[in-house]
Structure formats: structure tokens, C-alpha cells
């Protein structure tokens, strides 16, 4: 049995957050990633969705997970929605908002990513819900935060990558073919904010453990991305020079970039003088290591262009696989530039259990990317595949609020809630 199947087949451990109840009023990526992290670590997550529509990403395809239904879910939806139960409630109605307030009264955590102030008209804002449940940890994820001149604006990852300065240091440098700012190939501003939101929620749980107090957490995409300018921002704050685009080169470390071999590109990442000397020895260019201009990283950074031209000439005749093997033997950090298909078949990735197979309630299999942290005594688990829209509405309302079947049906008839439509695959098996 492969590691991924072995992990998925074993009985899930309760998880360090077992017993915590999370009300997830978010959609798309940043906040749903945060709640998926909580779910992976054992929390019970109720994903509140709009009846008939659900999370926007359910329709962000192709590709779609073909399961025989009339409206299959898009691949995008599956990246941030496992270990959740889908509850379809229209909280634009008074009855729906009242149901959510009742659910929030029994919740530990609520996560939402509506525009600043958008939930107040439904009585679902932080002030109202914390008044009714002072232990509630209420996390708002927005583009620009709850305060400041941009607070009411909508924020999207692409905009944030540009506004934060990230795109100004990403892309080919001026004077090279293809020069110009470019976004990162993943929605990193969303992803970073989701991670910061999860960390902030865990910190708030620790505070509540000591004080009994809940609180309103304010996470913004712009704040998160600015915080992750890290060395580029510090280079400016300390040195006063505005960082510029360097393509795949590093602003501080040399050599640290891509080089062309005879059959492919490889990455070379020498983080120390020792590694640089080992690379020169391997390439038969001890003269470069002996050159006083290149003896230290500071010198190599000043003479970046001259050194990289010489290294490029020495690397060009090699075949990529042979050079990478030789570098590994010599202790010189390097690697290939994998495609997504290659990395998802990489033996290291598979050995670490980073691919997991799950099954939806209709039996449809879906493979997902696993949780990266290894917690040997309280591991992450893969209990619930990303749910179909409204799959758990009836069960949750019965379990959490004690509603009888007749009450649930009346709410459905009134359009306040929606139940999952019968699935063709389940009907056939029945």
C-alpha cells in the first residue's frame, strides 16, 4: 500500500483541535484555506453556503470533477474545502440570519470574508455575535482590513500583488526580453492571508484559554503581503535602495539563480562561500574560487554579472541530470524546475504523504494535496471530502439546533435553506 493510501485508510486521530466548532461564512480561497487548516487539525467546520449557488469556486472551471451530476464541482473548489460540512442557508432572509445567530451562539470560531460592515445588516457582525457569545473568536478576512482609507474596497489577490510591491520585484529585469512586472503563478496573497488567519485564530484560542475572552481578529490581504516583503523591504529600509526585478536571481546571494545546461534549465543556490568553492571545483573552475573579487558573497554580489557569465559557460555543456547528481554528491544545493505533473509524481512528495485520496458521500474519489505539518502525537487527518452543496444542511440543523424534520422541511419550502439534491450515482446504487 502506498503512503498516501495507507494514511487515508487508517482511522483518523481526533486531532489537536477536536471539540472546537467553527462556523465558516467564507468563500473563494483565503478564508476557506484558514478553515480547512482548522478542519485538518480536528475542528468541526460548518461551511455556510448560499442555496442554489454555494461557494463561487464550485463554478470556477473547467476542469470539473465529473461525477454524473448536472452541476459538478470545479477542481478549484477542492483545494480548500475538505474536512467541512456544507450547510445551505440564505441568511439574507430574517429566518436564515436567525438560524446563523443560533449556530454562532454555540460556536467557538467564526470566519467570514465579506466586505467590511457587510454582515451588520443581518445581525451577523462581530459586535452583535460577541455580545451574545463573549467567548467567540470572530475572524474577518478582507482585502484591506476593518480600518484605514481603503477599508470599504474589495480586495483581490491580483490587485494586492500589484499594490503590495510584490509584482515590482517579480519578473525579468529591464533590458531583457519579456521584461516587466508579473504576478506570481499562484494566488499567494490569498494563501499567505489564510495562513496568517489560521495562526491568529490559534493565538486567540490560547488567549481565550487563559482569560475566557473571545475577540474580533482583523486580517487583511494587503497587510499580509506587505509583511512578507521580508528581505526586500529590509533592503530598502536599511540600504535606501528601491528593490528591482531580477528575474530568477537573488537580491542578496550570488550565485542563486537558474542556468541553462545542454538539455534543460537547472537551479543553483549557493548560500555560503564553502558551497561556492565546491561548485567551482566541480565545474573545473577553481580560478573563479581563487579570484579575490568572488571570495565572499559581498564581492560576488558586486561582480554578479561577470561571475554569472563565467558560470553559465561552465555549466552549458553539462546534461541537467548529470550535473544535478554531481552537485548533490559535492554538497552544492541545486534542483530541477519541475512541472506540476512532475512534482506530484516526485518520490519525495509521495513518501511524505502529500497526496491523499478521499471519497465524497456518493463514492466519487478525489485526490487532494495533504497537510504539510507533521505532528506525531496529534496529526492532521482527512475525514471528510469536500462536500456537495447543502449535503449536511438537514443533519446539522437537527443535531446543532434540535430542529424536527417538519421544521426543516418548512424552512426548505420557504427557501430559507436548501438540501443537497439526490445524486445520480447514489440513486443508481440504491
Describe this structure in words.
The protein has helices at 3-9, 30-40, 94-105, 126-132, 157-163, 188-211, 221-227, 230-239, 273-282, 286-290, 297-302, 304-315, 320-330, 340-343, 347-351, 393-401, 405-413, 424-429, and strands at residues 21-25, 44-49, 85-89, 109-112, 137-142, 215-220, 256-260, 265-269, 334-336, 355-359, 365-369, 417-418. The protein is of the alpha/beta class and 430 residues long. The chain has two domains: 3-227 and 344-429, 3-Layer(aba) Sandwich (Rossmann fold); 256-260 and 265-336, 2-Layer Sandwich (formyl-coa transferase, domain 3), CATH 3.30.1540. It holds the Pfam family CoA_transf_3. This is CoA transferase.
Which key terms come to mind for this protein?
18 helices, formyl-coa transferase, domain 3, alpha/beta, Rossmann fold, 38% helix, 430 residues
The average pLDDT is: 94
Radius of gyration: 26 Å
Strand order of the largest sheet: 6-5-4-1-2-3-12
Can you tell me the CATH superfamily of the largest domain? Crotonobetainyl-coa:carnitine coa-transferase, domain 1
**Helix content class:** 25-40%
Produce the secondary structure layout:
Blueprint (H helix, E strand, L loop, with lengths): L2 H7 L11 E5 L4 H11 L3 E6 L35 E5 L4 H12 L3 E4 L13 H7 L4 E6 L14 H7 L24 H24 L3 E6 H7 L2 H10 L16 E5 L4 E5 L3 H10 L3 H5 L6 H6 L1 H12 L4 H11 L3 E3 L3 H4 L3 H5 L3 E5 L5 E5 L23 H9 L3 H9 L3 E2 L5 H6 L1
Parallel strand pairs: 1-2, 1-4, 2-3, 4-5, 5-6
Antiparallel strand pairs: 3-12, 7-8, 8-9, 10-11
Amino acid at each position: 500500500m502506498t503512503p498516501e493510501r495507507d494514511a487515508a485508510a487508517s482511522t483518523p486521530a481526533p486531532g489537536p483541535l477536536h471539540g472546537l466548532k467553527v462556523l465558516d461564512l467564507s468563500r473563494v480561497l483565503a478564508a476557506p484555506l484558514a478553515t480547512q487548516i482548522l478542519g485538518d487539525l480536528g475542528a468541526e467546520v460548518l461551511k455556510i453556503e448560499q442555496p442554489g449557488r454555494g461557494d463561487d469556486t464550485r463554478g470556477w472551471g473547467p476542469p470539473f470533477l465529473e461525477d454524473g451530476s448536472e452541476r459538478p464541482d470545479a477542481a478549484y473548489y477542492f483545494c480548500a474545502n475538505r474536512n467541512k460540512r456544507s450547510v445551505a442557508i440564505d441568511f439574507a432572509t430574517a429566518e436564515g440570519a436567525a438560524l446563523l445567530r443560533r449556530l454562532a451562539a454555540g460556536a467557538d470560531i467564526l470566519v467570514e470574508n465579506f466586505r467590511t460592515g457587510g454582515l451588520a445588516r443581518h445581525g451577523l457582525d462581530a459586535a452583535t455575535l460577541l455580545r451574545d457569545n463573549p467567548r467567540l473568536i470572530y475572524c474577518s478576512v478582507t482585502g484591506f482590513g476593518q480600518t484605514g482609507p481603503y477599508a470599504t474596497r474589495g480586495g483581490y489577490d491580483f490587485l494586492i500583488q500589484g499594490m503590495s510591491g510584490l509584482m515590482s520585484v517579480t519578473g525579468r529585469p529591464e533590458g531583457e526580453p519579456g521584461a516587466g512586472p508579473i504576478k506570481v503563478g499562484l494566488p499567494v496573497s490569498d494563501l499567505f492571508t489564510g495562513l496568517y488567519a489560521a495562526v491568529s485564530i490559534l493565538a486567540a484560542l490560547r488567549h481565550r484559554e487563559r482569560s475566557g475572552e473571545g475577540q474580533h481578529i482583523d486580517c487583511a490581504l494587503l497587510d499580509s503581503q506587505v509583511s512578507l516583503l521580508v528581505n526586500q523591504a529590509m533592503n530598502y529600509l536599511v540600504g535606501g535602495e528601491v528593490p528591482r526585478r531580477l528575474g530568477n536571481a537573488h537580491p542578496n546571494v550570488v550565485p542563486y539563480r537558474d542556468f541553462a545546461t545542454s538539455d534543460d534549465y537547472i537551479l543553483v543556490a549557493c548560500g555560503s562561500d564553502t558551497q561556492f568553492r565546491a561548485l567551482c571545483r566541480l565545474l573545473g573552475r577553481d580560478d573563479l574560487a581563487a579570484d579575490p573579487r568572488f571570495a565572499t558573497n559581498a564581492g560576488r554580489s558586486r561582480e554578479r554579472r561577470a561571475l554569472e557569465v563565467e558560470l553559465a559557460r561552465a555549466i552549458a555543456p553539462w546534461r541537467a541530470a548529470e550535473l544535478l547528481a554531481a552537485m548533490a554528491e559535492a554538497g552544492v544545493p541545486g534542483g530541477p524546475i519541475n512541472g506540476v505533473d512532475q512534482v506530484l509524481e516526485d518520490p519525495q512528495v509521495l513518501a511524505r504523504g502529500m497526496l491523499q485520496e478521499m471519497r465524497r458521500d456518493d463514492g466519487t474519489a478525489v485526490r487532494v494535496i495533504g497537510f504539510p505539518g507533521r505532528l506525531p502525537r496529534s496529526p492532521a487527518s482527512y475525514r471528510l471530502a469536500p462536500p456537495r452543496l447543502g449535503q449536511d444542511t438537514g443533519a446539522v440543523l437537527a443535531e446543532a439546533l434540535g430542529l424536527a424534520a417538519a421544521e426543516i422541511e418548512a424552512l426548505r419550502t420557504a427557501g430559507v435553506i436548501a438540501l443537497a439534491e439526490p445524486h445520480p450515482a447514489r440513486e443508481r446504487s440504491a
